[in-house]
From TrEMBL:
GO biological process, one term: acetyl-CoA metabolic process
Keyword Cell membrane (UniProt): no
Enzyme class: transferase
Keyword set, alphabetical order: Iron, Iron-sulfur, Metal-binding, Nickel, Transferase
Organism per entry: marine sediment metagenome
EC nos: 2.3.1.169
Name listed for the protein in its UniProt record: CO-methylating acetyl-CoA synthase
UniProt-recorded Gene Ontology molecular function terms: anaerobic carbon-monoxide dehydrogenase activity; CO-methylating acetyl-CoA synthase activity; iron-sulfur cluster binding; metal ion binding
Keyword Metal-binding among record annotations: yes
InterPro entries found in the cross-reference section: ACS_CODH_B_C (IPR045822), CO_DH/Ac-CoA_synth_bsu (IPR004461), CO_DH/Ac-CoA_synth_bsu_3_sf (IPR038571), Prismane-like_sf (IPR011254)
Domain CO dehydrogenase/acetyl-CoA synthase complex beta subunit C-terminal intervals: 75-272
Pfam families in UniProt: ACS_CODH_B_C, CdhC
Length: 272
């Protein structure tokens, strides 16, 4: 719905926020049928492989439970499959610039060990999308030379971000929230944040409505983290990335630890 005037959406894997402006409603946008028709046309235009589509809107919360469980089952299978491969097993990474409509210097780097920060696109999904629509928002990134294995710094990723951020950013460490961190748009499922008092990290997800251990709510940290900036100490991440063996491994190694998860001293219950 980034393409519908007057409608805003923010999607993560488990959360879908959508707002319809009163101005759009006043101009006559008063039926889900319109939204469904637009979405079907968009999907068919973007993905010519789709010949027919049907969209159902649920307005009763309890009715969504069954399809929700079905979707969760599919996600579980996809996660299981995604965990079977790692960065060293593949010769192609992928990028996504879908969120450049509101974060112009942001581009997601999607590798087997680093799922997109919205959590919606793993390496298999990105590969399929780039193949189905080679001119679309998802594209191939040949990794090129690996400059630093612990940090996850690759020639191809640096070149890609320099081009896609129009020269604003020229270096990314895939596995660090502290040095040359991956940019964050606004769709991240969670934030990895640095807690200087204990030289450790915290993780808070977007559904946590209380203040985190650093005294800040998710919304305040999200302002600091997002917008396509590279913000050491505030890194937008997906939930799946937390269970990756390479999760923020560079930050762990610089602290004398072996795994990124060991740097984490606090996380909210929802993340656990
Ligand atoms: S968060 Fe990244 S992968 Fe997800 S839609 Fe935005 S740019 Fe694409």
């Amino acid at each position: 719905c980034n393409f519908v005037n007057g409608i805003m959406h923010l999607n993560q894997r488990y959360t879908n926020w959508m707002r319809i402006s009163t101005a759009a409603f006043e101009k006559g946008f008063n039926s889900f049928q319109m939204l469904g028709t637009i979405m079907i046309r968009l999907f068919k235009a973007e993905l010519p492989i789709i010949e027919k589509a049907q969209i159902t809107f649920y307005t009763e919360a309890k009715e969504i439970l069954k399809p929700y469980e079905f979707a969760m089952g599919i996600y579980d299978k996809r996660d299981e499959r995604a965990r079977t491969i790692h960065d060293d097993d593949v010769d192609m990474f992928y990028g996504c610039v879908l969120c450049q409509s509101f974060a112009p210097t942001h581009a997601c780097c999607i590798t087997p060990d680093r799922t997109s920060l919205c959590g919606s696109i793993n390496w298999f999904d990105a590969r399929a999308a780039a193949k189905v629509d080679p001119k679309g928002p998802l594209f191939e990134i040949p990794p090129g030379e690996c400059y630093n294995k612990d940090a996850g710094e690759y020639q191809g990723i640096n070149e890609m971000i320099k081009k896609r951020s129009l020269g604003e950013i020229d270096r990314i460490f895939l596995f660090s929230g502290m040095e040359f961190p991956h940019t964050s748009c606004g769709c991240f499922e969670a934030i990895d944040f640095y807690i200087p008092e204990v030289n450790g990290h915290g993780i808070v997800d977007r559904n946590y409505s209380d203040v985190a251990i650093n005294g800040l709510p998710f919304s305040a940290m999200a302002n600091q983290t997002g917008g396509g900036k590279q913000m050491p100490g505030f890194n937008g991440i997906s939930i799946q990335y937390i269970v990756s063996p390479k999760y923020q491994q560079y930050d762990a190694i610089t602290q004398g630890l072996s795994q990124g998860i060991e740097t984490v001293v606090w996380m909210n219950k929802g993340v656990k």
